[in-house]
Amino acid sequence: MKEITSTEFETEVLAGGKVVLDFYSTECPPCEALAPKFEGLANLYGNDIRFVKMFRQQNKPLAEKLGVKSSPTLVFFDNGVQLEKTMSGGIKRSDIICQLDSMLPADRVAEIKSQIKPAISEYDVVVLGAGPAGLTAGLYLCQAKINTALIDIALPGGQVSTTHEVSNYPGFVNPQPGYMLSHNMSEQTKQCGTIYKVAVDVTKIDLEKKEIVVDEFETIKAKKIIIATGTSPNLMGIPGEREYKGKGISYCATCDAKYYGDKEVVVIGGGNSAVEEADFISKFAGKITIVHQFAAFTANKQAQEKLIVNPKVNTLFEHEPRSFVREGDKIVTEIEDLKTKERRKLVSDGVFVFIGMKPNIEMFKDKLELDKWGYIKTDEDMQTSMKDVYAVGDVISKKYRQITTAVADGTIAAIAIAKELS
Predict the structure, then answer these.
(1) Active site includes 255?
(2) Could you tell me the CATH number of the domain that includes residue 185?
């Protein structure tokens, strides 16, 4: 692997046969996460594909010419021709391998794969998930001098990193950008000494053996495991939803309602979350239209009664959204009347979706005791029904799910574990 500048681009890249070029930056967590993967793959594929790096800030004209707008970005070349596929942000090892394999003959790929040697790493504690709960647990554990690894399929931060601003986290007079709050949490935990394995593919989780396999080749063993995998909003799966998530479509009223003062919003759903959150949003928004698929709310009666008398709220029962598009600063929600099949458009400043959350426990949900909603049950020390397996944050059974409650969970689990291991 070699680092080059733009003056060497023609000779080292365009005339270099098969090449993968990494545009990186300093003070860039995704770049730091990519570096060991890039180096490891260079050792594996280096005889067939050249691996080169370029400091993006000092080579901006070339980066812009190649369409590179963020760090890190991987650009692939084959005999001087830039390939269409590029990768940026939280780049997974498996995605890089897929692209590298496509650049080589199948028999050579098989030969390279045969050289991959399984690796084993051992830690006192492994934390699954790098949101506020997992980061806090990692921080307390490393301060207690406990050998800890933090694993996440994405970059650190969890849902907080996608929140526009956070105004209710103690210690900050002014609202904090969500990405910055999560970044500072992550850097604090990393500098303490917690080992990060992020933007990885988690291939297998064996809670009984306390083993996790990442990227199909590294087995990570631990004495104790903390599950901090959080939750994901249920999605409707309609056109425009993913494209405008965080750009007009929100799944958190506490996070974003304050930005819709005297504006018009659409709320999707009719259960407890939708009805209770719509009432909360009405403290800010000037007008709310609720779109619900059934003929009546499914929320508890008390919440319904409170919402029905709210003059800001109008409800469209037996309607469902079919698509979202952006027109200027507005979000246009196409809805369908389920009785007449007629479609029409609702123009608003934003959309809130509350059709439920799901805990991220697919790989081990059959191993632990869960509540009736599918969340993990824990005791007062955050220990689950399985010995030496703890759970913290939004993934556990509890009444309130906020950043502050997540960091409290992480603190409790870490202190309990530290006392046991000491």
Answers:
(1) yes
(2) 3.50.50.60
